[in-house]
Amino acid sequence: MRSKSIAVIIVAAGKGERAGAGGATDPKQYRLVAGQPVLSRTIAAFLSLPAITHVVPVIHADHAERYSALGLADARLMPAVHGGATRQSSVLEGLKALGPLRPDRVLIHDAARPFASLELITRVTTALDQHDGALPTLPVTDTIKRSLDGDLVATTEDRRQLFAAQTPQGFRFGQIFSAHMRAGTVRREFTDDAEIAEWAGLRVAMVEGERNNIKITHPEDFIRAERIVMADTGFETRIGTGYDVHPFAPGDAVWLCGVKIPHSAKLHGHSDADVALHALTDAILGAIGEGDIGVHFPPSDNQWKGAASTIFLRHAGTLVAARGGRIVNLDVTIVAEAPRIATHAPAMCAVIAETLGISASRVAVKATTNEKLGFIGREEGIVAMASASVELPRVD
């Protein structure tokens, strides 16, 4: 008897706006958790199970470039399809994409749940041997109150009969496809696929869920997600420092932390001479033991002449992510008599955060003078110092 084919729909078509915080602009499914995008983690969880035959991501039409940048490659990974205005319509688009393949079973999973374990997925698929559908649930432990007006308590629910639903939710493909097609013709919005199955008269079983199978919804969920990864892999903290100095040359502006500041001179250097980003890049490279900026971008190479130093910083951040690490915090101090830096600090933090794909709350930029002492006091140049705290998987 042939084995059952199992396809997976990853629902990633939302904009993830509730999860934004600290200047983060990327949708939650593309933001990093311990150096890896949420969506990449979610898809990888299913591709690690040999029984999965096809995976179809359903993405927002505006996110095609973001998805492509993930660089995901697997023979079972189908081309992404564009979702609809609601989760329900997005799932239907995924089901339509699988229609020509007619898999025996389908799992429908939220992209924002990156920690579904193999054991959890297997519990759901196994339950489909006896039932039309299955979903993981957790018993509700809080006392639940019902209110008719949001002000006064009307009644207390019996929590022994209440369970919190998770994904993946599994179904026999033909049945859930038919149920979704019918549900799309009624004036009603269903909260999840299990509700559509119930409405269609299918028998849906509950299997044991997992506490770590969290759905990233709010900014604080990213903190919990980082802790889950750290507990699974074991991380260690690395500290790096950077120092750079550049002299002034004739010009009308200086580049500092990716921000162009009008001045009576410019900084002299092979690239844009952004002394602050050079120090910061060295700090990150030092934290991961990757030498200094000159090793990766030698000044003898003319392709870097006049280059934006954000290129160097982004490269350092990419190296951290490639090791499965994450940047915890960055601290930059600029020492200059002029120009004045303080009013530009928020913009500088924003540039650094955007370049590295981290929250601006993890970046500090400070400025001070040298009290008219030395070459800085004589306004001959600018010095920058930086430190970087990075977490990497522990290697013993």
What is the arithmetic mean of pLDDT? 92
Query: Low-confidence segments, ≥5 residues, pLDDT <50?
Result: none
What's the overall geometry? elongated
Distance between the termini: 46 Å
In CATH, the topology of the largest domain is named: Spore Coat Polysaccharide Biosynthesis Protein SpsA, Chain A
The CATH superfamily of the largest domain is Spore Coat Polysaccharide Biosynthesis Protein SpsA, Chain A
Name of the CATH architecture of the largest domain: Alpha-Beta Complex
Question: How many whole angstroms does the radius of gyration measure?
Answer: 26 Å
Q: What is the strand tally? A: 19
Largest sheet: 8 strands, mixed
Provide the structure class: alpha/beta
Portion of residues within helices: 25-40%
Q: So what's the CATH class of the largest domain? A: Alpha Beta
Q: What share of the residues does DSSP label as strand, in percent? A: 25-35%
Number of domains: 2
Tally of helical segments: 12
Site (Transition state stabilizer): 18, 28, 270, 369
Protein name: Bifunctional enzyme IspD/IspF
Organism: Devosia ureilytica
Pfam families: IspD, YgbB
